[in-house]
Specification:
alpha+beta, 4-stranded antiparallel β-sheet
């Protein structure tokens, strides 16, 4: 028995191409890296879309304050720094560190300074169920 035409034309999973990420280089100059967070509070959470929107808001709050180090103005350098930080629901910075350093010390210093100057972070809305939240964000620096 022959297959219907619509089934013959569909690609198999091996033939399918991976989806492209939208907004790879954003307006802020930061690559759209995966935003990773873990909850450190005791409450259970619901409403993942609302929390994802708040997580994006925290990321934008951080990136709005990002600056390139002055020491590197005349060099053409590019590097990524992964920062890790913990905030409480009131927006207070509880902990910060470099999760994955770049090979350029000035970018690493700028990343730590960025987290500290971005504090306090936005307060979590009442519908957010966590008490503390850990974020890992990749900051892309490029000096032209």
């Amino acid at each position: 028995m022959p297959k219907p035409p619509e089934l013959e034309q569909q690609p198999t999973p091996q033939q399918a191409r991976p989806a492209m990420k939208a907004g790879h280089q954003g307006v802020s100059g930061s690559s759209e890296a995966p935003l990773m967070q873990t909850e450190t509070g005791q409450k259970t959470t619901e409403g993942g879309a609302r929390e994802a929107a708040f997580d994006s808001y925290v990321r934008e709050h951080l990136l709005a304050r990002k600056k390139n180090p002055r020491l590197l103005k005349r060099r053409r350098l590019k590097a990524d720094v992964m920062v890790e930080f913990v905030i409480d629901r009131h927006g207070a910075l509880l902990q910060s560190s470099i999760a994955k350093p770049s090979r350029i010390r000035e970018f690493d210093r700028a990343a730590i300074k960025l987290i500290k100057t971005a504090s306090p972070f936005p307060r979590a809305p009442e519908y957010i169920g966590w008490e503390q939240r850990r974020y890992e964000i990749v900051l892309s620096y490029e000096v032209r």
